[in-house]
UniProtKB/TrEMBL annotation:
Molecular function terms from GO: nucleic acid binding; RNA-DNA hybrid ribonuclease activity
Organism name: Linum trigynum
CDD domains: RNase_H_like
Ranges where the Reverse transcriptase zinc-binding domain occurs: 118-208
Organism taxonomic ancestry: Eukaryota, Viridiplantae, Streptophyta, Embryophyta, Tracheophyta
Protein name: Reverse transcriptase zinc-binding domain-containing protein
């Protein structure tokens, strides 16, 4: 972080140097034993906007270290110390931070990335967000969820995604990757960026200007594809958005026709064809119903002989806090163990699921120490568990612990299984048991999940 710019810095080096102040701002601590981290001055709270405590300095000393807040024997935060020094908001945030099982030193991580590694992409996003905030504009990330729900043919949706991510194979985008690629617009010779070829080029203008969408296109001038898209999302109806996307797709198709010497359309024809195609598609959808094929419902399946299956789930509670649920069944579908717990800590979904697995591992160890397959319906977490390598953030602390415990046991593994097969655990995670206590059912199941158990075993309740 101390290097200076030389006389002929490379492009990449210049970008890194430009990001230097930003990197400093984005670096924070992941608490290990808390001995290096200063309570009041350092960035160490992942869910706080600037990663710092908000409470004013209280009776802990000015140079107090986070270690003073931790009870390492019980691996918990000292609630009396938290109570005496922090407001409820800070206390809630601090309680979300896991304390590693084995004492380890504090680590500096990149705060804005889910995995804690600095990447140009997350750095760029923060930079852009800050730039826009500085200009007084609101930063709106592209609402992909809404875009995926638009009634558009799949190939047009893929186009939309490529356009919004700025990866259409235009001259400019190709020349970033291929040195010899020509980055000139086939119509006017200017640099062919996405914005140029689909909107700003005179050729494109002749297509869209006379059309009903002309104003929307004109308003996009000077904006990057992403900004323009955000703009449109915030401003127009889904129907209009479909029309714009369809028009862009037709302009892009026509550009390719010209480029590859395919039969061309008349310029004044392109927008009309786009509109007609969209109408046709809508009509088709209306007649045939949604084009989506219903997914086969995922069901619970009995484990193999001599294996237990542990279904685990976590659930965000309406009253605040997190519910954990566990149902362990044998090869006949009989319940060996069921458990529920409610905790006041609000975790992010992945973190909650990870804590649920950790909790389940301890219960299995005590009450059913047999070969077990753990099933969770949190795909992203299972992917992180499967992947080699460390995760730098707080989630990494728990992921590491799950991996360690499973490898110590040697007979426990995990896999992702869809929500339809995890209903029993889901029910358990919503049981209103006492706070911060694990409620156990050994050998016979709680009556309130009997119908789920029955359904899982195709209508017969195993005894
Ligand atoms: Zn051009």
């Amino acid at each position: 972080m101390e290097a200076e710019l030389g006389s002929n810095p490379s492009y990449i080096w210049r970008s890194i140097m430009a990001a230097k102040p930003l990197m400093k701002e984005g670096l924070r601590w992941r608490v290990g034993n808390g001995e290096q981290v200063r309570v009041w001055w350092d960035k160490w709270i992942p869910s706080s906007p600037n990663f710092q405590v908000e409470s004013p300095v209280a009776n802990l000393g000015l140079q107090a270290k986070v270690a003073e807040l931790i009870d390492h024997n019980t691996r918990s935060w000292k609630s009396n110390v938290l109570q005496a020094n922090f407001n409820p908001q800070d206390r809630r945030r601090i309680n979300q931070i896991p304390i590693p099982r084995v004492q380890e030193s504090d680590v500096r991580v990149w705060g804005w990335d889910k995995l804690g590694n600095y990447s140009v992409k997350s750095g760029y996003h923060v930079w852009r967000k800050k730039k826009l905030e500085g200009l007084g504009e609101r930063y709106i990330p592209v609402d992909w969820k809404r875009l995926w729900q638009l009634q558009l043919p799949p190939k047009v949706r893929v186009f939309l995604w490529k356009w919004g991510s700025n990866i259409l194979p235009t001259g400019a985008n190709l020349s970033k990757r291929i040195r010899e690629a020509c980055d000139e617009c086939p119509f006017c010779g200017l640099r062919e960026t996405q914005e140029h070829i689909l909107r700003d080029c005179d050729w494109a203008g002749r297509i869209w200007r006379p059309s009903a969408l002309g104003t929307l296109f004109a308003e996009g001038a000077e904006k990057s594809s992403e900004e323009w898209l955000c703009d449109l999302i915030g401003k127009v109806s889904d129907d209009e958005l479909c029309s714009v996307v369809m028009a862009l797709w037709f302009i892009w198709k026509e550009r390719n026709n010209q480029y590859f010497n395919n039969p061309k359309m008349e310029e004044n024809e392109v927008m009309a064809r786009a509109e007609a195609y969209l109408d046709e598609f809508r009509l088709g959808v209306a007649v045939e119903g949604p084009a989506r094929v219903p997914r086969r419902e995922v069901r619970w399946e009995k484990p193999e002989r001599n294996l237990l299956k542990a279904n685990v789930d976590a659930s965000k509670l309406k009253e605040g806090g997190t519910g954990l649920g566990l149902v362990v069944r044998d090869e006949e579908g009989r319940v060996a163990l069921a458990a529920a717990r409610r905790t006041r800590v609000d975790w992010e979904p992945e973190m909650a699921e990870a804590h649920a697995i950790l909790w389940a591992l301890d219960l299995l160890q005590t009450h059913a120490p047999r070969p077990t397959l753990i099933e969770s319906d949190c795909k992203s977490l299972i992917q992180k568990l499967d992947r080699q390598g460390n995760i730098e953030t707080e989630l990494g602390v728990i992921v590491k612990e799950i991996r360690e415990k499973c490898s110590e046991r040697g007979d426990v593994c995990w896999r992702f299984w869809g929500r339809g097969g995890n209903a029993a655990a889901h029910e358990m995670a919503r049981v209103k048991c006492r706070w911060e206590e694990t409620e156990l059912w050994l050998g016979s199941p709680p009556i309130f999940i009997l119908n789920v158990l029955e359904r899982d075993c195709n209508g017969t309740l195993p005894v």
